[in-house]
Amino acid sequence: MGLPSYLTGPRLRVLLDVSQFGNIRMSDLAKNLGVEARVMTQYVDTLEGQNLLMRMPDPNDRRATLVKLTDEALPIIEKARLIMEQAAEEIFEGISIDSRKQLIQHLNQLTQNRHR
Predict the structure, then answer these.
(1) What is the dihedral of CA 30, 35, 37, 43, to 10 degrees?
(2) How far is it, in rounded angstroms, from Cα 8 to Cα 75?
(3) In which band, very low, low, confident or very high, does the pLDDT at 48 lie, cut at 50, 70 and 90?
(4) In Å, how far from its chain's centre is CA 1?
(5) What single DSSP character describes residue 96?
(6) Rounded CA gap, 8 and 35, in Å?
(7) Could you tell me the domains of the chain?
């Protein structure tokens, strides 16, 4: 069984980032993902409606909103990670470990160049 149909690539990325960073401001999440605040609001609205994220006030800034994962999100995130690992193994099948490392280095360099 796959992931829920409402869990598009960008929405999954939101969940994975929140999983990585913990309670995070929506504005920081939007910046991390390179989307506008209004787009992030749409993603969070959908994920909150599916009971995967919840909003809460930022105790350090009344104007900001934090998001955090709900307990219902955790098994979905684990399942997504397993699916992504399996897909990566299929893609990289037959490619040496050294070639994989080189590719990762090049991709990391591209990412760093993008954030400059």
Answers:
(1) -80
(2) 16
(3) very high
(4) 21
(5) -
(6) 15
(7) 9-114 (1.10.10.10)
